Amino acid sequence: GNPSAPGQAGSPEEHGLSHPDGTPMELDEIPHVRALRGEVVPAEDVLRIAPDPGHEAILSIAAVPLPRSASAGGPLAVLLVHDVTLERAHRRELQAFAGTVAHDLKAPLTGVGSWAEILGDQLDVLGVDVTEPRASLRRIETSAARMDQLISDLLSYSQAQSAMLAPVSLSLTGMVEAVARDLRDVNAGT
Fold it and tell me: 60: which strand partners?
């Protein structure tokens, strides 16, 4: 189509803008159109499909309407456009890597848990005082459970960058008690 006149939005096809999932944006969803209507648009990812075949870019676009003056012919807006294609590709690679690492670390950790359980069964049939070995075994099991949680947290963290924020209240008491317990166990073993 013909290029838009200054201060006008044009059509979605003219700009080649889509949602990150590839669905075309309706005219009233385009950030600069929203800003021209008076809306402040926080940075959001938009997929731009250029007319050249196969050329796509992920843009982070923020838009702010400008105050109208008597001399201005129509609404005006300021756009901040940042090409984040490489950043988003890097994020996807990091998420894939973290998923692979988490999976690869969980397998031997499962083995540690299984061997600890077998060792516990063997301690039960010895017929001698196993108080100290049993305490050491509990430390192994606690450390394995903590490592499992750390791996899960790593995976959650790598996926959190692309997730919506959902704040929740949380008590730090359990975490402080776990840290104190770990420090006490480390100091008792030295």
Answer: 45, 82
Can you tell me the distance from the alpha carbon of 171 to that of 174, in angstroms, rounded to the nearest whole number? Answer: 7
Tell me, what DSSP letter sits at residue 30? Answer: S
Tell me the C-alpha distance between 73 and 68, whole Å: 9
Phi/psi for 2 (5° steps) reads: -75, 145
**What are the tens digits of pLDDT across the range 87-124?**
888 888 888 888 888 888 888 998 999 999 999 889 88
Give how far Cα 36 sits from Cα of 29, 33, 54, 116, Å: 12, 5, 30, 65
Q: What are the backbone dihedrals phi and psi of residue 37, each rounded to the nearest 5 degrees, phi first?
A: -85, -5
Take residue 132 and report the two structure tokens written for it: 């100290």
